[in-house]
């Protein structure tokens, strides 16, 4: 890299700053590409430039000269070496036009050196670019987008372009374009093509290359070829008669003044940098009209050429070339249907800014949840737009400067129609996005302060503010709702931890107290538990606050199906059956007594009931698919059933669980709008039309959209989903037929290895009934389960409330007041602003020095939530950002949520079913106790105990 940096100068002063600029420019080029598609009426996007191929062949040969100069002998450039080459010759315009239209012409070569090495050489039929750098290039493309007629082109060149780049720059760009396009082209075999930008040529340093007709090439007939495809017809006749041969030549770098690297508009004079022939390209004699030639041409059209398909010794140089890496990847992905562009309607863009300003002012006086429902919905849409603009931070490390690499292999066709095991290839243009191992994102800049890790002491915070003193019920919910959210969180988020005993966090115990860190172990003055495994090791120069997910971030049912192929296969029926293994309707258990399922951490009976229910649901979908489509093999049935069940889970969470825990009319309408579009009344329709017209039919009918940052769940999302107070400490198990009490147990009696024997003894029906008639705990202070404050897991004894506090601090999540401010809420100035309970205020004042020290989890629990809400308004702000994002980023819940992928039966299954129907399919005995007119997460009807003739229960 040091050798390369001698020649290059980065925009913004650093590779990373330049990458951000190029990323923005690449997005602008995608919009140009989409505009060209609309103008041409094409069914799919074309290449942003060089849309119309004149020739595409796979049988070219490149042979280096035997007398190759010594200084140029490096890498694959060896005397006499010969390689197969794919050749594409084209017109330069981004719109398909007749070959006689004035235009530049292009050549793209893919030199196949070996299985892991190829070199893409891209050239255009003019020595220099019209643009000095990427910014000018994109400005020109935007100015010319949509300019099809001559008057429109004149307006673009003489009005729009000067406004974008200035008069003198626009004049120079016009001169270059006109000089390159005014010539009459009679044959592409007679054109010379220049690289314009430089590449490294091993130890010889930078070169520009060119492709010119070999000596002795036959002239073309006089005048331009006739017809819209005249240049292609001319080449076909020429190749029918003999080979077409070019010389590949290079010009070597001299100095920054005469042979500039960064300025693509400056010519390398042949006087200063003589042209040196290095190889011969031969397109052999052939008939382009055969079926084989047409098929080869079609395959060439699917290729994505990129000058960064090369090796380090031949890396591209200069601003334009560095920008091409991102631009070409984005453009190719868009053209091939792997990346999508959503154009915001002009009215939404124009009205969005003033409407957001109006609501910001209004909310200082009236919070959104006290507004009339239609206005509150509009308020939430406006606020979600604010969050999308300001609270999605990309935490992945991207290559900067760009690095060369091999040609990417074609995407496995199966991954187009099914979810991968590890969450990869959901976004086909960035296969690792959201997959197992992807980095957690951020909704606000991290606040990493090691000096505050133990201040105030988290054990004291837990004892004074979190510990359950008396059970506070959430009377609008049942315990299935508590099990459900853990079921979901296990699908979404799991930080990788160091194995117990290898690297631990040590929390000092308050004076006069101690802790037993292992079952039966010694009493110690510290509480110890496994540390998170950061991505950035000590000495990297970065704080250890980036963490990889141990499960995929997508809504893909990985808690049921597993996060890799080995686990997924082990859960299936023997001999490749599509169903999931069950033992008499229950999950099989392993040697450790835990169930064999996708994710069994922190296992308890509530999780077992929901997992069992959806394992059975998977098998029911498989049976229905077999009956409806007998030609489908078991592999296709398995993956289709997984798609259906995962989407059904997403629907249940969106339109049933969320409105149950956020029980307001506004949220009920809002979440249903996410899934199926707004209600059909004119006021709600108008609100969506004004602000988010693209979602007028529901997110599943939109295109995937990441809103400016790669999809990932965020550390703040993890923080607001710390809902452990939902878990009761004791449970009563009741017979669903007679209301007879079966048993009363503490949480320790139904967690871990005790859960599976208990659910088999009790049965799924009575287990669900017992959870359905019981209330979970309210998400508030003084309600953290005592059973989780001495919780045995992986050979450790942990206080989970302390773990929640410590991990939030160590992950750099800002403290509560900064967290509020980061979500555009006013800061609190005194403890009384947080709680109206005098005793709670007194305890807060005793524990914390100031309101700015209050832990995020404590503040979220202390807030007085809006009426009907099960958690705080601050937590809700993260929720409304991510609730739609989990749907809208997912290819299988947007563009590929369709019968061709899911089957018509699968789409109908998702549309007709919900949590109640899933329960009744597998436990029909519960029909009489499930709520009428409410979701299955609301309290069920308890059966009155039947008394015997002695009057005893």
Automatic annotation (TrEMBL):
Cofactors: Ca(2+)
The protein's matches in InterPro entries, at most eight in alphabetical order, are given as:
A_dioxygenase, Catalase, Catalase_core, Catalase_sf, Haem_peroxidase_animal, Haem_peroxidase_sf, Haem_peroxidase_sf_animal, Oxylipin_biosynth_metab
Q: What are the UniProt keywords, alphabetically?
A: Dioxygenase, Fatty acid biosynthesis, Fatty acid metabolism, Heme, Iron, Lipid biosynthesis, Lipid metabolism, Metal-binding, Oxidoreductase, Oxylipin biosynthesis, Peroxidase, Plant defense
Start and end of every Catalase core domain? 44-144
In short, the EC number is: 1.11.1.6
**Enzyme kind, highest EC tier:** oxidoreductase
Q: What Gene Ontology terms describe what this protein does at the molecular function level?
A: catalase activity
In its keyword annotation, does this UniProt entry include Lipid biosynthesis?
A: yes
What protein name does the entry list?
Catalase
Origin species, per record, is: Streptomyces katrae
